[in-house]
Amino acid sequence: MIKVLIILFFPVILLAQVATFSEDFLKLKYTNSIVVEDLKKHLNILASDSMEGRETGKKGQKMAAEYISKTFKEYGIPPYDGQSYYQNFKVKSGRHLCKCSTCDSESVIDKIINKNYVKGQNIIGYIEGTDLKNELLVITAHYDHLGIHNDTLIYNGADDDGSGTVAIMEIAQAFMLAKKEGNGPRRSVLIMPVSGEEKGLLGSKYYTDNPIYSLENTIANLNVDMIGRIDDNYTHPNYVYLIGSDRLSTELHNISESINSKHFNLELDYKYNQEDDPNRYYYRSDHYNFAKNNIPVIFYFNGIHADYHQTSDTEYKIYFD
Predict the structure, then answer these.
(1) What SS3 class is residue 226?
(2) Could you give the domains of the chain?
């Protein structure tokens, strides 16, 4: 996970145009703050049984939101409106993902589809830029998951998407350290853990329908979903699937390729970026709501595994190194 996270961090540096950018800076000055111990600490909490699977609108999701926003406050990231880190939403959802036999009946499904309004929160961590502050780079990961069912089945969602959530939390910390040392970004950076993804990309859709910051000034969205495991196509963790990088603009793609070849040599796999990909991952995570608005995106992803949407997606199976 840590290698994928750092390769994500470097395009953020370039796209945000950090004021004192230099080769030495690129080579790790602020990546030193991105450490396995912090990733483990955050994920151990967010993917714990006490969070009850973080289902949007339920107690566990609200507890997770409180933990993330508290962490942002500790990092020194101010609330976006001076008062709150939350963009609250209430939307109707016709999607319900559940493994419970008690949810299989037609009457229950009909009730869910026709009467289920979902309340959630997107968490807004806004790091203001300098002379290009009106231009915005948005970084997303969904912190919600499938919840707890039958009072005993807890879907912890360590990889989906606890891994992406803790990754962007660490990016937020690194950027605030840079800003405090006078090396902050010229463009503003919005670190936005969203909820409602598992119920139909609801949180990211609500944001793009009700943007706090102008979509016209949003230069790109980098989205992180499930980067903590190794799928069946690989036997090592030194890879990442990139989706969408060249769909709307080649700039993101070229930046990513250049940084990887110079500094990391991870295997950048575009298998799922094909327009005829039967899995349709391009349409299945939160970046898509930005892409629909003609905003260039990259989706960082390590693939599906046997624990996907199972109670066995737990923290101890995550590859942190």
Answers:
(1) coil
(2) 2-88+122-317 (3.40.630.10)
